[in-house]
Amino acid sequence: MVDVIIIIICIIAAINVGFDCVKLLPEDIIDQVSNFGALRVVIAGFASIIGLGIGVVVQTTYRRLEAQIRNTPIEIILTRAIGLVIGLLVANLMLAPTFLLPIPKEFGFVKPMIAILGSVMFSYLGVGLADTHGRVFLRLINPNSLETMLLAEGTLQPTSTKILDTSSIIDGRIEELLKTGFIEGQILIPKFVLQELQQLADGSNDQKRVRGRRGLDILNTMQDSFPDRIVINNADYEEINTVDAKLVRLAQEINGTLITNDYNLSKVANLQKVLILNVNDLAKAIRPIYLPGDSLELKILKEGKEPQQGIGYLNDGTMVVVDEGNTYVGGEIKVIVTSALQTSAGRMIFAKPFSENYSKALK
User: Fold this and answer.
1) CA dist., res. 286 & res. 172, Å (int)
2) What single string gives the DSSP state of each residue in 83-115?
3) Could you tell me the sign of the dihedral formed by the alpha carbons of 273, 275, 279, 281, in that order?
4) Cα(308)–Cα(329) distance, rounded to whole angstroms?
5) Do both 67 and 1 map to the same domain?
6) Is residue 112 part of a domain?
7) How far is Cα 191 from Cα 216, in angstroms, rounded to an integer?
8) Do the beta carbons of residue 257 and residue 163 sit within 8 Å?
9) Is residue 91 part of a domain?
10) 165 with 265: CB under 8 angstroms?
11) Does the pTM exceed 0.70?
């Protein structure tokens, strides 16, 4: 309905402009026209075609603007509106003295031109500052927001919004991190990530289908547990083909932090100055450190490659090679750590069955 109204208004406006242009013609030319009514019909026809073209352009621009506004987070719209108003107020205050300057009549157009240019310049500056510092301004208005925190110096700083990618959702550990409270701020789920999860859940590949359904189930659980923090964002970028590129673009626009398990996405995002929280890196960082002489309970699962070796695993997947542990396969024993080795594939711990004498020797 709005599209039709826009086109009709443009056609009527074009016809009126055409008739007004005819009135500007010299009277002697108008007197020479034998059938003035026919001329008006021809002018109305041409003006209708031009008005139709302008209407289509205006209607298309309106639809694009409407879609962009719908996909823009409300906090960005609010801060830009405030920045625009402040910019116009500053422009009026700064440009008011220029209207008191004595300017000759032939240069009377200078004052309106200065006013227009100044208003446009300060409005653009206000919107630009709102995009850069608007989120901090909103946090100052609402200091009790979930996205704020007080630093030791006493200054109020915003906690960035966390954006989840598909891999971190399917992994599931993000839910446990939220429960512990180590992750602060708003948790954003982009719509295109939901679509990717749905495609995986509806796919023909059994493994991908299971992963997709697991991700959707985890999201539902998270939304039930943290309804005030989990937000579905409708932003999308049709000109961008890959989900990873869309995630980086969204993080740049809202100054958010991207949570992922994807190694390649982490590298690409780091190159584009996007903050990354990699759950795998976190898991590695908080692994318990076992030093020579430390003891632990371990279940021997299989024999090792070398004679008399037994192999077991810690809860985080770290492999433990137990010398003289082949006779304990299938059982759980107490072992003492002799050394640890960090490899490209991960960490490996070497140990021996526990004995008091050997433990004292290591310590």
Assistant:
1) 17
2) HHHHHHHHHHHHHGGGGGS---GGGTTHHHHHH
3) positive
4) 11
5) yes
6) yes
7) 13
8) yes
9) yes
10) yes
11) no
Return the SS3 of 218: helix
Q: How many CA atoms lie within 13 A of 142 on its CB side?
A: 8
* Residue 80, in any domain of the structure: yes
Tokens standing for 91? Answer: 């422009």
In the chain, the DSSP E strands lie at 148-150, 156-158, 162-164, 187-190, 230-233, 257-260, 275-278, 295-299, 302-303, 309-313, 319-323, 332-343, 346-353
Residue where a domain terminates, one of 92, 123, 146 = 146
Cα 282 to Cα 261: distance, rounded to the nearest angstrom? 10
Crossing angle for the helix pair 2-23 and 36-71, to the nearest 10 degrees: 140
Q: Which domain holds residue 318?
A: 295-362
**pLDDT tens, residue by residue, 292-350:** 888 888 888 888 888 888 999 887 778 889 988 888 888 888 888 888 877 655 678 88
Cβ 93 vs Cβ 37: under 8 Å? no
